[in-house]
Amino acid sequence: MRRAITITVLSTLAGLAQADNTNTFNCSNFLTFNGNQAQARDLLGTSKETLSWNWFNCLNQLAPNGLDRVWETMKPSDQVYLADGAKPTPYGTPFTPPEDVTKQAAKIAGMNLKRAFHNLNATQQVDGLTLEMGGAVPASQRGKPVRFQLLMSESTFDYIVDQGVYNMNGQDALTSDLNFPSTSWEVKAGWLWIGEDATYQAQLEKDGYYIAQAYYQNKDGTYEVGYAALTALHVINKLVTGWVWTTFENVNNHLYTVTNDIPSQPMTNSTGPTPAAVPVNTQFQGWYGNLSRYELIGTQLETSPKLLANSQLESAFQTQSSCFACHGTAAYSKNDGYFNFAQGGDAGQGGIVYPTEPVPASEFKGYNKLDYVWSLKRAQWQRP
Q: Do 299 and 283 touch, CB atoms closer than 8 A?
């Protein structure tokens, strides 16, 4: 019963409106910029950090179902890029986890089968490496990977379906560049796996982590079901042509995640919080108690700042991490496949150099640009 109360309290806190502060930002239709993109761009120019925090707060309000946070109701990529390349179900279609997951969940204290279950199906970062849990995590979790998932908004999903690029067949048939609607969003989340360890869960709750219901599939086909703690949320949208890139982390991540050095060291972020983010973090953390242990690392517009990384999502290559530059290489060629943005060189991670400036247009001859959306690389072929 104790855990059930804890999860309910967390959900209630997530839905608290702007109490005890003077913030008048309207969250009602923020995913469409409240129908006024020009005003949103003005706010972006005034303080991109303030607007980023307002978006983060809106994403973490209670969704209309009264159970989940708004971003949790977005469409996960595993429900878009299906393993058989089939057309995905419409946005908002109720999703039931695998039967083995629901059976296990029914036996776990506090689990609510009406709430979202996050399929934490990814562990590899962009460079192919994993981020390990360590430090203050229980012995049973040390050395195991932080897990990830990617979700998208309705505008993003609808465009992918309308263009038929949810599978490789559609991408292979492209004859021109993609151009997503300006109301497109994606979020990428990082998670510490808790399982059913109530003591560990209580420790993470004390350190300000959001706790959610989750599962993942083992290599042998069986499922792990339990709780997970949100370490990071990377948020992007297309309010401007080059997209807006903003990223948040829990301030206590260094206690639970470690570098791949020998011996390992606490994982920290070398790119932020940026100087402009620091006072905005202080203001919003004071306003929103349920988000007070999360901080904005920074917001990137084109190459300003030049580097921006999330220590949970781009751990080992923070010194070469540019959201805008790397995603700007999202492109597909019928003859050569996806564009390879990892270039050889002595200065890079393991002899690999990642772009921190836009790659010249001449490099994309024969490619169709994917409008910064690298999640399309998760698509599969649909076979007859």
A: no
Domain count, the chain: 1
The CA-CA-CA angle for residues 202, 204, 207, to 5°, reads: 115
Q: Is residue 366 part of a domain?
A: no
What residues contact 15, with CB distance under 8 A and at least 6 apart? 61, 62, 66
> What is the SS3 assignment for 38?
helix
- For residue 271, being part of any structural domain is answered with yes
- 172-204 pLDDT, tens digit per residue, is 999 999 999 999 999 999 999 999 999 999 999
CA distances from 109 to 7, 70, 141, 221, 229 (A): 10, 24, 20, 24, 16
In a domain, 247, yes or no: yes
The C-alpha atoms of residue 53 and residue 236 are separated, in whole angstroms, by: 13
| Residue 371, CA atoms < 13 Å, CB-side half-sphere | 24
Both structure tokens of 59? 């994403």
The H or E element that residue 4 is part of is helix 2-14
Q: Show the domain range for 210.
A: 2-301
Nearest to 299 by CA among 31, 50, 32: 50
Contacts of 369 (CB under 8 A, 6+ apart): 177, 178, 330, 331
- What is the residue type of 166? Y
At 296, give phi and psi (nearest 5°): -75, 125
pTM: 0.93
Tokens of 5: 């109360």
Whether residue 341 is contained in a domain is answered as no
pLDDT (tens digit per residue) in 323-375: 999 999 999 999 999 999 887 655 445 557 889 999 999 999 999 999 999 99
| Ranges assigned E (strand) in the chain | 75-76, 117-119, 132-133, 147-152, 185-195, 211-217, 223-237, 244-250, 257-258, 294-301, 331-333, 337-338, 343-349, 352-353, 368-369
